[in-house]
Structures are given as C-alpha cells and as structure tokens.
Write a structure and sequence with these properties.
Shape: rod-shaped
Helix content: 25-40%
Order of helices and strands: HHEEEEEEEEEEEEHH
Oligomer: single chain
Structural class: alpha+beta
Strand content: 25-35%
Radius of gyration: 58 Å
Number of strands: 12
Distance between the termini: 87 Å
C-alpha cells in the first residue's frame, strides 16, 4: 500500500515545483496516513478513525494551473502571388523533302531544293569552248571571176592566231543543278520509313565500325518521324 502514497506525494511535489509562485500563495493542506490493525494504509484529508495509527504531513494544496489567455484572432492575408508569365509553345512546321532528278534520269531525295550541285567541265557536257590559240593553215589557191576575168589568188598559209572552238580547255566549267520538287508530307513520311528500313537492313549485315554510324543516322530519322510524322 505504499505505492499510492508515493504517487500522491510525487504528484503534489511536481505540482508545487511546476507552480512555485502559485504554491506559495495557496493554503497548505494536511494529509493523514492511517494504518489499521491489519496493516492496511489509507490516505485521508481528515483525521483517522479511532483505533488506527495516524501520521500527518503538511503539503501545499494543489491548485489548477492558470488558463491561457485568449488572444484576439488576427487575420493575416497571404501576399498576393505574382501572375505566372505566359508560356508559349512553338510548333515547328514539318521539314520538306525534295525529290531531284539528274540529267541521266536517276532520282534521289534532298533536304533542300538545291539538291546536289556539282562542278563539271564544259567538255564533259559537250559544250564547245572558244579559245585563242595558234593555228596552222596550209597553202591554198582560190580562183575568182571578176569583171569577166579570172582572178587567181594564192594563200601561202602558215602559222597564225585565231579563236577556234575546242574541247581541250579543261579549266572551263559550270555548276550543274538537278531539277528538284517538294514531296507531299505523306510521301515524305513514307520515304523516311523506307530510309529507316534500309538502314536497319544494312546494320544487320554491317561491321561493328559501320554499325555505330548507321545507328546515328537511324536516330536522326526517328527524331524527324516523331516531330514531323506523329511518331511512327
């Protein structure tokens, strides 16, 4: 029966320590510890009955802790957030693809309407080139009729300069551009798919050194298919 007494004393001591100023101002209280003939202990705030052994102890009467003050509710408005700047989504139009035709009838695709311009000498295109060079003419005679009389003129020939057509001027040439036209967008997507399938076929049989280059080309085609053709 000593445990209840210890708990009560501990509670009273804790209350007195927690509120020293209040405890000093409060009234003291007498706690009676009563023990009957069988040894049963009871704590009372009044004297023990007759026939029981009584022990008294003075303690500070516990009081209720002070209630917290109610503060007036103050409304604090949150600061206004600055409006988020507008977001713009830029949609790029599909890139065109051109089909070009060479003079000999072969076709290829190009990303620009220029195709594959190339420098070619004029002689390769069967164009005569006029150059000033020394030429040799053999002696010749010419018979003319003049006023009813025959006039015989003899040209001695020889070396002289003259402008003549020749194909030996290797420095002369011109840029050759093939005829190109834009393909419809649906045809562009089909051509890109054909190019990707061809790259995959080549990668299957390619050497390891060539496979990395083919894979880079395929990644470029996949990116273009995703942006211009809706995935594929």
């Amino acid at each position: 029966m000593r445990a209840p007494l210890s708990l009560l004393l501990s509670s009273l001591v804790a209350t007195s320590l927690a509120l020293p100023g209040t405890a000093a101002a409060a009234d003291s209280v007498t706690i009676y510890r009563c023990t009957d003939a069988s040894g049963k202990v009871a704590l009372r705030d009044s004297p023990c009955p007759d026939g029981q052994r009584q022990t008294e102890r003075q303690m500070v009467r516990p009081v209720d802790p002070p209630q917290p003050r109610h503060l007036d509710t103050i409304r604090v408005d949150a600061p206004e957030r600055e409006p988020e700047p507008p977001r713009y989504v830029v949609l790029q139009p599909p890139r065109p693809l051109y089909e070009c035709t060479t003079p000999d009838g072969k076709t290829y695709t190009s990303d620009t309407p220029e195709g594959n311009p190339r420098w070619m000498p004029l002689w390769a295109l069967d164009y005569p080139v006029l150059v000033d060079r020394p030429i040799y003419t053999p002696p010749r005679s010419q018979l003319r009729v003049r006023d009813g009389n025959f006039d015989l003129r003899i040209d001695s020939g020889g070396l002289r300069h003259g402008v003549v057509p020749t194909i030996a001027a290797y420095g002369a040439g011109t840029w050759v551009r093939d005829a190109c036209h834009a393909l419809p967008q649906r045809e562009v997507c089909d051509r890109l798919l054909d190019q990707r399938n061809e790259l995959r076929r080549r990668a299957f049989n390619a050497q390891p050194s060539d496979r990395a280059r083919i894979e880079r080309e395929e990644r470029g085609i996949n990116a273009r298919l995703a942006s211009d053709c809706g995935g594929y």
